[in-house]
Write a structure and sequence with these properties.
The complex is a heterodimer of chains A (309) and B (254). Among the domains of chain A are: 147 residues, P-loop containing nucleotide triphosphate hydrolases (Rossmann fold, 3-Layer(aba) Sandwich); 65 residues, Alpha-L RNA-binding motif (Alpha-Beta Plaits), CATH 3.30.70. In chain A, the strands form 3 sheets. A 6-stranded mixed sheet of chain A has the order 6-7-8-3-9-10, sandwiched between helices. In chain A, strands 2-1-4-5 form a 4-stranded antiparallel sheet. A 4-stranded antiparallel sheet of chain A has the order 12-13-11-14, with helices on one face. The two termini of chain A are 41 Å apart. Chain A contains 10 helices and 14 strands. The longest helix of chain B has 31 residues. A two-stranded antiparallel sheet of chain B has the order 1-2. Chain B contains 11 helices and 2 strands, in the order αααββαααααααα. The chains are: A alpha/beta (309), B mainly alpha (254). At the A-B interface, α2 and α3 of A face α1 and α5 of B.
Chain lengths: 309, 254
């Protein structure tokens, strides 16, 4: 069964801006799905329509088979949303924010209290439950929103940039938590600007650009399309002249820093063999950017190039 | 019944909201009305004499109580719902399976609660200045509840349509306050010249104030059944209008 089915979804705002130009999207039950796109691509509009915050101009959205327009309350019961921006009452405590949300979903108070405790412990905020939320840090506020979205145990959880502005330690903890939630059977749709996050967490992916889905596939086959990996090499000695390595592209980033493009058909062994032959010693090596990021840029660029010609 | 849990949650949230900020919500009307009673009732009222056989103080008490109910039931909903909209925590309700009529009923109930509570506070303050014997408690309570409902609804509509904090103060300052003061709170319309008597009859608050006064001290300038009819009619119309706007997502959805 599909957790989410979108067909020919369009949205034109009152000012005439066409945010969605007929998108189709399917997310399978149990999936960990990445919805990526640049700012203004249409991600937030799509999420807004899925979560009933934005009225669609046309098209249909179904959550676990329930039509968002025709079976609105049933569809909403299946959905939990962590929005991009903080949208809770900052004068409420973390506890009351989560408890109120449970109430809106019709969860009786005694059960809501138990779930609130479970969710706040899950996001490591139980100790802060009675703190007025505006006194919490940015990362804590994001985690309050995650706890709030999970309190009614949704079957589909949409996380709209949940780790934005969160330090790396907490981000890693949140990744682990999201993976646990997904492992328990909750379908997750994640939007993020940290593409390494999408690459390491998600199994399937859609890329949206200018209101259209330009890519919709599984992560592995998408990444397999990447033809060149870029590496940064730290060298032991400064380079006097730029060496010529057959089959590899080179670019100097500093006296002792070299960027190497490694095509898929070439091996790293081959690279190091040629580097050794040129008497270049490498101290360390790292990826220039993560693979998905490279692919994302390539896709957007090639689409823009096609659009311009 | 899950929708009733949602309803109770909204009402509880609203109740704790205005209780938490009692120095802004409950204390000011106590001080303001104490001043009304002191200045208009005691100092000036003693020189006015009686109106329809009642002392001036006894005459103005019901009007001042109802004026407080009107102001605070309106203010509660307009400020609370607009803040909810402004801070975007309305999204908490919109993503949840809460029917629009429950959202409306929850906020209106919050407004009624505050209006009635403030009315109670003002009634207690009035006891320091005049004995309060209620002639027809059922009628007084019914009028108070209907009036609070009507103005809570009006506040809700104002909040939906408001696009800035300025917009939520325009109606209270330029419509509600003048209509309340000209609604026979401090005088009987019989005291006005004939032309102003006729103009006053176009003010809906006049009917509510007089119906409440009838419930409390047993005298009224207008037909009380007309007051019920008018208040009920307005409640019906404003409820439909508010639900229609919620259904369309006016001011809360794009």
């Amino acid at each position: 069964m599909n957790a989410l089915s979108i067909q020919n979804l369009r949205k034109t705002y009152q000012n005439g801006f066409e945010a969605l130009k007929g998108i189709d999207l399917e997310v399978k039950q149990g999936d960990f799905f990445a919805l990526l796109g640049a700012n203004g691509a249409g991600k937030s509009t799509a999420i807004g329509i899925i979560s009933s915050l934005v009225n669609a101009s046309s098209g249909s959205v179904k959550i676990f088979g329930y039509d968002v327009k025709l079976q609105r309350n049933l569809a909403k019961s299946c959905l939990g949303l962590v929005p991009q921006e903080i949208n809770f009452n900052q004068f409420d405590t973390a506890k009351s924010i989560v408890l109120n949300q449970a109430g809106y979903y019709g969860i009786p108070r005694h059960i809501a209290l138990q779930r609130m405790e479970t969710c706040l412990k899950q996001v490591d905020l139980w100790d802060k439950r009675d703190t007025i939320s505006r006194r919490l840090s940015g990362g804590m506020k994001r985690r309050v929103m995650i706890a709030r979205a999970m309190v009614h145990a949704p079957k589909l959880l949409i996380l709209d940039e949940p780790t934005a502005g969160v330090d790396i330690e907490i981000r890693r903890a949140m990744w682990q938590m999201m993976q646990e939630v997904n492992a328990q059977g909750t379908t997750i749709i994640l939007t993020t600007h940290y593409l390494e996050e999408a690459e390491s967490l998600c199994r399937n992916i859609a890329i949206i650009d200018s209101g259209k889905i330009i890519e919709h596939s599984d992560m592995a086959s998408l990444l397999s399309r990447l033809h060149v990996d870029y590496f940064i090499l730290d060298l032991a000695q400064p380079l006097m002249t730029m060496p010529t390595l057959t089959g590899f592209s080179l670019k100097s980033l500093g006296e002792k820093v070299l960027e190497v493009g490694v095509p898929k058909e070439r091996s790293l062994n081959d690279l190091f063999k040629q580097l050794s032959a040129a008497n270049i010693q490498v101290i360390s090596m790292k990826n220039k950017s993560n693979r998905l990021e490279q692919l994302f840029i390539d896709l957007i660029d090639s689409k823009n190039t096609r659009g311009n010609t | 019944m899950s929708v009733w849990i949602a309803f109770r949650t909204i009402v509880r949230k609203e109740f704790y909201r205005f209780i938490r900020i009692w120095p802004q919500t409950l204390l000011p009307p106590a001080i303001t009305t104490a001043l009304y009673f002191l200045i208009f009732g005691k100092l000036i009222g003693d020189r006015i004499g009686t109106i329809q056989g009642m002392s001036y103080m006894d005459y103005i008490v019901p009007g001042i109580i109802l004026m407080s109910v009107i102001t605070h039931s309106y203010a509660n909903v307009v400020s609370s719902f607009y803040s909810t909209k402004f801070q975007r925590n309305i999204e908490e309700l919109l993503v949840a399976p809460v029917p629009n009529w429950i959202i409306l009923a929850g906020y209106i109930s919050g407004g009624i609660l505050r209006g009635v509570l403030v009315g109670g506070v003002v009634a207690v303050i009035s006891l320091f200045f005049a004995p309060l014997t209620i002639q027809n408690p059922l009628m007084a309570i019914t009028v108070m509840l209907l009036t609070a409902t009507l103005f809570a609804l009006a506040g809700f509509i104002n909040a939906i349509l408001a696009e800035s904090f300025d917009d939520i103060s325009i109606i209270p300052n330029f419509v509600l306050t003048p209509l309340s003061y000209l609604g026979g709170v401090f005088y009987s319309v019989d005291m006005l010249p004939p032309i102003w008597q006729h103009i006053s009859l176009g003010n809906p608050i006049l009917y509510m104030v007089n119906a409440f006064r009838y419930g409390v001290i047993g005298i009224s300038d207008v037909d009380v059944s007309l007051a019920f009819l008018m208040t009920g009619g307005f409640i019906f119309l404003l409820t439909l209008f508010a639900l229609w706007m919620l259904h369309r997502g006016t001011g809360i959805k794009t």
